[in-house]
Amino acid sequence: MTNSPALQSSKARRFHLRVFGCQMNIYDGELIRASFLNRGWTETDDPEKAEACLFHTCSVRQRAEEKVHSLLGELRERKRRDPGLVVGVIGCMADREGRELFEREPHVDIVCGSRHFPRIPDMVARVLGGEERILALGESEVPVDAPVRDLGGRPSHWQAHVAVMRGCDMNCTFCVVPRVRGRVESRPPHEILDEVRRLVDSGTTEVHLLGQTIDAYGRDLPKEGRPSLALLLDLLADVEGLHRVRLITLHPSYVDEELADAMARSPQFLRFLPVPLQSGSDSVLRRMKRGYTMDLYRRRVAILQDRMPDLELVSDWIVGFPGETDVDFEASVAALREFKFLQSYVFQYSPRPETVAFELEDDVPAQLKRRRNIRLLEVQREIAKGRTRKMVGTASSLILEEPASQGGWKGRIHNGHFAIVDVEDGAPGRLVKARMEGWNGKELLATR
Ligand code: SF4
Predict the structure, then answer these.
(1) Is pLDDT at 10 greater than 60 in this prediction?
(2) Please, what is the average pLDDT of the chain?
(3) Is 40 exposed, middle or buried (0-12, 13-18, 19+ CB in 10 A)?
(4) Which of 19, 38, 243, 392 is close enough to 205 for a disulfide, judged by CB 3.0 to 4.6 Å?
(5) Residue 425: which residues within 8 A CB-CB, separation 6 or more?
(6) Could you tell me the CA-to-CA distances from 278 to 172, 291, 427 in Å, in that order?
(7) What's the rounded Cα separation, in Å, for the pair 220 and 183?
(8) What distance lies between CA 15 and its chain's CA centroid?
(9) Domain boundaries, the chain
(10) Which of 177, 220, 345 is the pocket-test mutation for ligand 1 (most atoms within 8 Å of CB)?
(11) Which of 24, 25, 58, 170 gets mutated to test ligand 1 (max ligand atoms within 8 A of its CB)?
(12) In angstroms, what is the span from residue 22 Cα to ligand 1's centroid?
């Protein structure tokens, strides 16, 4: 007799899923989870108890890949003891490393690319049935997103991710996404609308629409009757019970008047918008092949701010890109001050194999990258404080997220600032109107 989890009956089958990376991966993780639960599997946090250990991976940073290799290493001994264990690598790392993963990690059974993960339960079943080494990479004949999304893998009832498109048509020199995730593939608007309606019916009040360059939504679809992100926002405006729509992430090149108008008239659009600038230096932007100059970025932001003066912007930054001088870096600091971003995500450049920038000399010392990172975040903190303080005296809607430790409830107001409101009988996802009466140095203090 053996106690091997891998040899237990199908009733007791358990999967262990670790998800790394961006919101899109988290969303995909929900889809993967739902597809296993539907087939009668149960989820376990403990890889030792699982028949199938799956990693939904990210290749954007080296550290995330190293972590997956280390977790895979921990499973090597387990697989020796229990050959029936199924080990699968899904997503960007599978796309990037491909067949080599089998060589580096011989105990891996499945290498499944970003466009193939909906078939992962079948692949696991095939391995359990005796098949060896399944490799599924590149484009898929069927769209990644099913026409009807299974909502069974969602952790939170009031907030939900919804992918509206996959892939990216840009070619930023530092980024592996276009190589691993492929070209833009937009979902038809009726599918998205249906998914949002079903989410709202199940208690969701806030959706986060996801796409690598979400403002490119629809550009891959036939010209006649081509939908756009502006159209999507208009369609969602009619969904009763949907309080908020958040967009993640835009590319400055696709911002136009039509989109800005739709955002401005949407009653649900969260005016807290990620439009990553990455660098304030034209020469760095050129080497990054971002597809815009500072001047173009300025003009696109002006289109948005003209319609929504209370819009708050969020940026990603890369510090220490090859060839970034002190002058280039100071241009980023100046840009941060100019656009007064409310939030910044700062990354220290690290070369990623299979990107164009990998060929450039990584010539900014690690210590200098760290110093630039710290400096940018210091400036960001100072700017954010000033912007939040300025909201005192305004009125806004607020979606409650969680009870605040000092009493009342914490939530975000219409343009992304956090506030604590004097509500005692709150519930996550509830919409309240409030007036910003003060500021505690971090959050706004609001009363109803
Ligand atoms: S826009 Fe650039 S950084 Fe963003 S996913 Fe596409 S290639 Fe990568």
Answers:
(1) no
(2) 94
(3) exposed
(4) 243
(5) none
(6) 11, 12, 37
(7) 9
(8) 24
(9) 5-136, 151-389, 395-447
(10) 177
(11) 170
(12) 13
Cα(288)–Cα(321) distance, rounded to whole angstroms?
Answer: 8
Locate the ligand 1 atom nearest the alpha carbon of residue 290 and give its number: 2
Q: Out of 2.30.30.100, 2.40.50.140, 3.40.50.2300, 2.30.110.10, which CATH number does the structure's domain 395-447 have? A: 2.40.50.140
Ligand 1 centroid distance, CA of 171 (Å): 7
State which ligand 1 atom lies nearest to the alpha carbon of 175: 8
The superfamily in CATH containing domain 151-389 is tm_1862 like domain (3.80.30.20)
| Superfamily classification of domain 5-136 | Methylthiotransferase, N-terminal domain (3.40.50.12160)
Q: Which residues line ligand 1 (CB under 6 A)?
A: 168, 170, 172, 175, 177-178, 212-213, 251
Rounded to an integer, what distance in angstroms lies between the CA atom of residue 271 and that of residue 311? 5
Summarised one tens digit per residue, pLDDT across range 378-430 is: 999 999 999 999 999 999 999 999 999 999 999 999 999 999 999 989 999 99
Token readout for 265 is 């008239």
- Please state the pTM of the whole predicted model: 0.91
- Report the helix count and the strand count for the chain, using DSSP H and E: 13, 19
| Angle, vertex CA 107, rays to CA 102 and CA 113, nearest 5 | 45
Task: Say whether pLDDT at 153 is over 50.
Answer: yes
Task: For residue 251, give the ligand 1 atom closest to its CA.
Answer: 1
Order of strands across the sheet that contains 206-210: 159-163, 206-210, 244-248
